[in-house]
Sequence to fold (1205 residues):
Amino acid sequence: MNMMSEAAVEKALDKKMNDIALKMIGKDVSVHYGEKRALYDVNLNVRENTVTALIGPSGCGKSTFLRCLNRMNDTIDNCKVTGKITLDADDIYDPNIDVVELRARVGMVFQKPNPFPKSIYENVAYGPKIHGLARSKADFDQVVEASLQRAGLWNEVKDRLHESGTGLSGGQQQRLCIARAVAVSPEVILMDEPCSALDPIATAKVEELIHELRTNYTIVIVTHSMQQAARVSQRTAMFHLGHLVEENDTDKMFTNPDDQRTQDYIMGRFG
Amino acid sequence: MSTSLILLSLLVIGIAAYVMASSRANALSGGKSSNLHSRPGYYGSYAAVWAMLPSLIVLALWLSISPSIIETSIRGAFPDEVKAQPAATQNLNYGMVSAIARGLPKLTAEEVAGITDGSIDIQAKLGEKGVPLAGAAEPYMIEGAKNLTAKTAVSRLVMTGVVLLLAVAGAAYGLRSVAPRFRARNQVERVMLWGLIVASSIAILTTIGIVLSMLSEAARFFAMVPASDFFFGTVWDPRFAGAGGTSTEGQFGLIPLLAGTLYIGFVAMLVAVPVGLFAAIYMAEYASPRLRSLAKPLLEVLAGIPTIVYGFFALVTVGPFLRDLSQQVNGLVTGNYMNFIQAQSVLTAGIVMGIMLIPYVSSLSDDIITAVPRAMRDGSLGLGATRSETIKKVILPAALPGIVGALLMTASRAIGETMIVVLAAGVAARIDINPFEPMTTVTVKIVSQLTGDLEFTSPQTLVAFALGITLFCITLCLNIYALYIVRKYREQYE
Amino acid sequence: MTNIVSPVAGAVSPAAAPRRDIGIKRRYAAERRFRAYGIAAITFGVVFLILLLSTVIRNGYTAFQQTAITIPVEISEKLIDPDNKRATDPSVLIAANYPAVVRDAIVKQLGIDPSKRTEVREAAAMISKGAPIQLRNLVVANPALIGTTVNVTFLADANIDSANKGQIDLNVPEANRKVSDTQIGWMNQLKSAGAIEKQFNTGLFTSGNSSRPEAAGLGVALVGSLYLMLIVLALSLPIGVAASIYLEEFAPKNKLTDLIEVNINNLAAVPSIVYGLLGLSVFINFAGFPRSASLVGGLVLTLMTLPTIIIATRAALRAVPPSIRSAALGLGASKMQMVFHHVLPLAMPGILTGTIIGLAHALGETAPLLLIGMVAFVADIPGTPLEPSTALPVQIYMWANEAERAFVERTSGAIIVLLLFLILMNLGAILLRRRFERRW
Fold:
């Protein structure tokens, strides 16, 4: 149970958590897929430079909420989002807000590693290229190296940058996807169960990475593993049947939750 | 007995065998069907199969083989000086013999006697009865014809006997086999399985048929015209088949035809590829479900329209339109109202063929683009790429092999297309880079060499098969390669 | 119920750091251009479709009407049987001078002086050259008509037909058009007398081919196409289904079945004209079937359609879920019983849809039929599939090659007929799919 001791260390580190600014604010967020309602008036805030974990049984709406944060739900036909979500002071569903610009600020890592069928280098350089963030070859080299370093992948792939990204192992692919997201220098990174397709060793590496990224980025992670939520996050939000049940400091959530349903879930009574 | 009567009696015997065998099985079961291995119907079918299958096979073999055996024996009886004549004349002689044989039954006994002793002119007499003869009949022909009639009659009699006997014997065998523990169902199903196997081998047989038939006819062509003259010749001027049918005077150069085929195909692809590809991209990535459900079938209607309709459209609308347009343009620019685009031209055929190919490109590409996993799209969009950037930089590169495969398949269609070019491209076999002039294609020449009266010994006719096998090989290679690419591509995402 | 951190606890961060320039404007312009290309491509295709169909319909709808001239004809004994020998020699009635009878009738109707030879000739040219034959058939069938005057409806000549339908531009100088001013005048004269009228063109559907546009019809082609379709259906459906069942349900997965698979896919892409060459060399030269017969055409089209049907049937069989197969086998059915009792009935709608689409393709196919000689001039409707015949698309090809304006109308009319058949077949396929579509 060294998990708990680690959580205690975290607690010491995050003592002044309440002073930390709110990066994103969700107010009365509801989502409909056609006739079916997936989210009911969720009010949830995301704190800057914090890892926020979204937990809950499958189908509870946690991924749906995550995808609202950078409007990935726009790509699904007949999906309707109501309510208000702000990034800094901007309403991201405001017609004046550009979805491309939003996604450049709020990056996303997906459940299954999805590197493009291109070389490792091109995968990482893709974001900077489309956004015009780098101009010269040297710029690109530097961005690619820095991003891969950040993702802890540099040492493993530096000799084969021009081999296909799909040739890497699952864990390496996921870290490549994180490097790809980091290369755009977003302000927020959304992760949708980033470790669900990985083995335990690869999972540990990705978790370690999330931990390090926290200093520079605001991270929201969806996970179905409560241990993972406890390990990597400072704040945790529990969803159930499309409702936000409870949002709290992670260590409080896992030791003394306010809501009975949270307790039941954490004790494994349902899920 | 006529063949249809034999078939009818076989059917009757078969049904009788079925009824008898199944009722026998019923009787054996003693009213309890669980005493039988199979349901009574299977015993019936078993007997029916034994009654009909062997006899049908014998009937088919007899019908296909006996004429040539009889022919050989009749020809063997021809006088020696006739046998010394060239093969073509001999064939003609035999044709006369069989014509007389067809006519003889229509004559009365006295007329036959008159013909045999030469007192009645056989050609006139038979012509009266509706059997025209190609020339004057010689006595040995009449003899041969009588012989032929007699032998055919004997053959048919024996065949009828053998087939019916076989049917009855088969039915009896099938009936005798009926026993409670006899596995009739398994036996019947084995026959059915063989039927299925035979059906699926027809696909193979078709290919073999195509290759063999074209190879053999093309080989006869290459025996008269050297292969190098055909494949590397730059002049196409086959002349007309001479009366003797063996003149090899013409020139049979493939190059101008191939050039025309490829040029028209190229113009068609210039139209079809951008239009089809953009239509596919728009429908796969942008269009609302409503628009998609409207535009997709509309474009597919283009694929359902017979090519002859496109050909007619090119002939009466597009061709004259382009010609008049060029006339006006030329007049406005130079003051000389001369048309520089011919009504039949590479351009006309190419544009119309391109329109025909749009749905092929778009539906093949649509399948391939939608096969790119959603995760790829999400990955790119999640990084803040616009839709068009996602398409250009992620989806198209990922789909590229598949699209190339699709384009190769489309190209093979363009090369094999016939009716549009027959009506819109012209018949002039020339090598030219001016798309406003008519050129011709391989398919046009296959059609023009094979319509009209045919003499299957002249290179003018046989060259069509050499052209056909060239066409077959080109399209086959394109298709095999395309299928290979597309298959590889599919595996990548499965 | 939720424990929301109060806004006071965490202040909203002030308007964020200055935005990076990521070229939004330029990139959206590119996006719009890209979209526009897509829309333009679809529009191009659809516009051409509309253009093609409207051209055919505009040129062709008039083909369903035909101008006819009804005039009293005096069937005079003097012209037909001057020596009164018809009782003993029936051939007199066949060889009689019917053209003169028709000519006299129109001359009399128009009130022309019979001695003006040019005018008489022009007047006679207004009636189809098939009229004397029509009259002959009438008289031979009923010799009692001789000596009487009867009202007979003749087809108008194709040029008069065009003029009557307003397709001839009268502003063109007289020498450059096929109808003279005098003829136009007579036409109007007949019109006011009620002797000329447009009627439904039944001949288009019943007559055989003819070199005179007004008498040419699709009868032979329709019957030929019907034979072709029946042969293709009767052969390709059972063979195709049997082959698919074997390949999908029974065949072991080995090199041979793999080869058959590749082979079928390739056959589906072989140019149709190659099938024509196959038919010519195997069925006509080798097996000795008659040229121009719809039997050979049917066989060729069957071979051509088989791959399509096999591919569609296999897809339909594959769509039947394995659970159905397991259920049948679990009850002790043999594999053959499983296929024929359960899988095949469930796959039938898909198979039929594929078959109809294959048939529709075969119906519009022209090139292979040209090579096996179905492009012959056939005037009599074939009684059996062994007699010479043509087919709808081949008839279109033959008429498309004719120079006369009236044939363009006929050709377009024939295309409309062909397209109607195709639309009916495809509608049938769609309805079938809708009706029986099953979601597993």
Summary: DSSP finds eleven helices and ten strands in chain A. The longest helix of chain A spans residues 137-150. The interface with chain C takes residues 18-23, 25, 43-45, 47-48, 86, 88-89, 98, 100-101, 104, 130-133, 187, 243-248, 258-259 of chain A (CB under 8 Å).
